[in-house]
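Worked Example 4.2. Consider the chain below.
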Amino acid sequence: MIRSRRDLLNTFGYGVGGMALADLLHGAAPNPLAPKKPHFAPKAKSVIFMFMEGGPSQMDLFDPKPALQKHNGKPLPAEFTKDLKLAFTKPNAAALASPRVFQPCGKSGVVISDYLPGLREVADDLCVVRSMHTDAVNHHPGQLLLFTGSIQFGRPTAGAWVTYGLGSESQNLPGFVALSSGAGTSGGASNFMSGFLPSTYQGTIFRNSGDPILYLSNPEGISKAAQRTSLDAIKELNEERLRVNGDPEIDARIQSYELAFRMQMSAPELLDFSNESQETLEMYGIGKEPTHQFGTNALLARRLVERGVRYVLLMDASWDTHTNLNKKLKDKCDATDRGSSALIKDLKRRGLLDQTLVAWGGEFGRTPICEIRNTSDPDNAGRDHHPTGYSMWLAGGGIKGGQTIGETDELGFTITRDKVHVHDLQATMLHCLGLDHLKLTYRHMGRDYRLTDLAGEVVKKMLV
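Applying the procedure from the previous section yields the following structure tokens:
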């Protein structure tokens, strides 16, 4: 007999959940990270996203603008700047031409700057998109939009959506792993959070030395058997609580404890590079500066997808070149170019590139006009945030390499052909994984949400 609203909810609201709970308590609960069928046959099985936090300068790396030379050091005509909305720079700032040397690379002729000699060697594998645009002009909103599809805090990130939709092929490592290099990101944990999805799907930060995760090793005097006994007791208590209130987060907690126990055996082996050849270590720049940190993360990314991890996020900080553009940009390229190109080469020679979707880019680009924060220093010039007409590249699983998509005007302010919004990028990456971005939804607070929010189209030109 239903005596109260609570009885009604318990009877009907938890009906399906109650059946799943019964299975759980009888030891038959499905692992939420178990592999799931995609919507259609995928090209890619996993993702490695190399996130260059702060916004790489597209006109110094992938989108040369020789027409800026004739305006260099002078304000541009108002017709080019009248609608500009910039974070710090006024539209009447002087134009800043790039001193970089560009050349067509590979058989395909993809144009790449002299700051990226490693990527020049893999040009035929890259799909360079020069026509990216976003709705955000500042870092944190831009990173939220790139990874969650919204500038509102609290939404699930792309890695969480992918592991929710596909699960993971690794049972001893998290389905979604985040690695960091540089001085930290503006978005921080919001770049790999699970939002309103169960916390099982959030990214797990791995360190690239010592224990991959803090406190992964047992304290001295604690044996594996003793830990297993302790975990079993904790599991019984959590299951009892789950029986009372049906909170799915308790199930996520149970799963996380079990995964952590399994990781104690598999995660340390992940960081053991002793079985990697010296040639491989040198290719990634491991053991040398300034390439060691990012190169280590890039090699870890390859080892993670080899072991079935679904989504790996490499966050590299400090691409925000408001000042000293030429020096700072060179420093970032020197630190990351070798590892980025080595990852493509290594995946390819191991037969993994065709099934691994690789992406590289920031939350926006940089302006064609100059930002001067220290007028007494002639080499202090930098570029402001630029949300329209910036560049990213993709390679691997489902992506047609050796091509350049989109164009910007002669000065680099606006897109003139093949606009690609952040939501289009998200839809295309999901498509490569066999996921329809319109169908990958999660009901929260009375409505269905998706990574691409209310927009996004697959960019067919990117696809094989």
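The two ends are 60 Å apart (CA to CA). The mean pLDDT is 87. Compare this with Example 4.1 before moving on.
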